[in-house]
Specification:
Subcellular location: Cytoplasm
Largest sheet: 5 strands, antiparallel
CATH topology of the largest domain: Uridine Diphospho-n-acetylenolpyruvylglucosamine Reductase, domain 3
Shape: globular
Low-confidence stretches: none
Helix content: 25-40%
Structural class: alpha+beta
Strand content: 15-25%
Number of domains: 3
Number of strands: 18
Pathway: Cell wall biogenesis; peptidoglycan biosynthesis
GO molecular function: FAD binding; UDP-N-acetylmuramate dehydrogenase activity
Distance between the termini: 19 Å
CATH class of the largest domain: Alpha Beta
Radius of gyration: 20 Å
Function: Cell wall formation.
Enzyme class: oxidoreductase
């Protein structure tokens, strides 16, 4: 029996029972469609619940992991010991003039659409990134020469003292796929973006163009976590992988995409181990051929 079942009684003082899952398969909550069970998965509906859940975990010594929609996450086959706190029900998006205030669980696509609807420019690059706002800010997500860091005014987080706190752009310490949120283990609750007024038709045209380019170049028909590897300084990961002769290489059900070698895809009922083993093959081969280290952009958690 899951040793955390008794913890459910405490959680039910904070959450509705429908928002608490025991032994929940993480393959149902990640875009890779792999991963063993989380001892507990909760889906809080507001920021106060998030705060209370984290406090309870700290008091009881329960490890926890904050997640959005699992689009940049690889959970190992043994699953997650402790709790996964999934924030996708925190998804409010409000427009105030040239600002958009979005909860951490709101999708980048929905915020991009809201910006378009209000003729606000600056977020077009994010229209096809499949992640949530919280994860995108944590990783300073970017695409097509745009980055989240170019649009943020401030972020409300839960800090290590389990207090709500506002971080300005400087305090976020945003760098390539890095932030103070990731560095210190903060939890994103809400983000304020600052945009500029633009021309609706031009913004729409840019979004349509980027979506077309994604469909043409990326293996969107297969489960994946987007770009598997960070961009090595002075190189492009996909080119290094392709020039190493690895395009189409498979381990079990995992494959280096034949459409875009920067993506490892779940082609045929892969396990997390298949994906991890293929990541290692790619890293070792590129290191041997080009003496370049590839580091994963996808976040890897859980037990074997």
């Amino acid at each position: 029996m899951n040793k955390f079942r008794n913890f459910k009684v405490d959680l039910m003082k904070i959450l509705d029972e429908k928002d608490i899952k025991i032994d929940e398969p993480m393959k149902d909550h990640t875009s890779f469609k792999v991963g063993g069970p989380a001892d507990i998965l909760v889906t809080p509906e507001n920021s106060d619940q998030v705060l209370d859940i984290i406090k309870l975990c700290k008091e009881k010594g329960i490890p926890y992991y904050i997640m959005g929609n699992g689009s940049n996450l690889l959970v190992k086959d043994g699953g997650i010991r402790g709790m996964a706190i999934k924030l996708t029900k925190l998804n409010s998006i409000k427009v105030k003039g040239e600002r958009i205030i979005a909860d951490s669980g709101a999708s980048l696509k929905d915020v991009s659409q809201k910006a378009l609807n209000n003729s606000l420019t600056g977020f077009e690059f994010a229209c096809g990134i499949p992640g949530s706002i919280g994860g995108a800010v944590t990783m300073n997500a970017g695409a097509y020469n745009g980055e989240i860091s170019n649009t943020i005014e401030n972020v409300i987080v839960i800090d290590n003292h389990i207090k709500k706190r506002i971080l300005n752009l400087e305090q976020l310490e945003l760098d390539y796929r890095m932030s103070s949120i990731l560095k210190y283990g903060y939890t994103v609750l809400k983000v304020t973006f600052k945009f500029e007024k633009g021309d609706y038709n031009k913004i729409q045209g840019r979004i349509q163009d980027l979506n077309r380019r994604r469909r043409e170049k990326q293996p969107l028909e297969y489960p994946s976590a987007g770009s598997t590897f960070k961009r090595p300084e002075g190189h492009f990961a996909a080119k290094l992988i392709e020039d190493s002769g690895l395009k189409g290489t498979s381990v079990g059900g995992a494959q280096v995409s034949e459409k875009h070698s920067g993506f490892i895809i779940n082609r045929d009922n892969a396990t997390a181990k298949d994906i991890l083993d293929l990541i290692k093959v790619v890293q070792d081969t590129v290191k041997k051929k080009f003496n370049v280290d590839l580091y994963t952009e996808v976040r890897i958690i859980g037990e074997d």
